[in-house]
Design goal:
The protein is α+β, with helices and mostly antiparallel strands. 49% of the residues lie in helices and 25% in strands. Strand 1 and strand 2 form a beta hairpin.
């Protein structure tokens, strides 16, 4: 095994001499690293951050537009008709004479009229 040591030392010495002869070679490495970080950030912005912001904005608009008489789905999968809204609480009739109160944020989606049959 000791016969490999001189070869390794010679290779290390040659690499050090090459690096010492061209000290500006490292600058390109830093620039490419910054470029990589920039591309990585753009990827995260366009594929993760922006679509999530868009979904949140649409959900906020949908919750603001909910009124009495709208048919909705609650996050648990329960279908019902909104009977009243008071600040952050929505009263939803899920069957004749059965009314529950949920937070407005629990409303997952508004359904087309006629989806919920009495």
């Amino acid at each position: 095994m000791s016969f490999l040591i001189p070869t390794a030392l010679a290779a290390a010495t040659d690499a050090a001499a090459t690096t010492a002869a061209t000290p500006h070679a490292q600058t390109g490495g830093n620039l490419s690293f910054l470029l990589f970080i920039g591309v990585f950030f753009l990827f995260f912005y366009f594929f993760l951050i922006r679509p999530q912001s868009k979904r949140q904005k649409e959900m906020k608009q949908m919750l603001a537009a909910v009124t009495s008489g709208d048919e909705v789905v609650i996050a648990g999968g329960i279908l019902g008709v909104v009977t009243g809204i008071h600040e952050n609480i929505a009263s939803i009739e899920i069957a004749k004479g059965v009314e529950i109160k949920v937070q407005k944020t629990a409303i997952a989606a508004c359904l087309p009229k006629g989806t919920v049959k009495s």
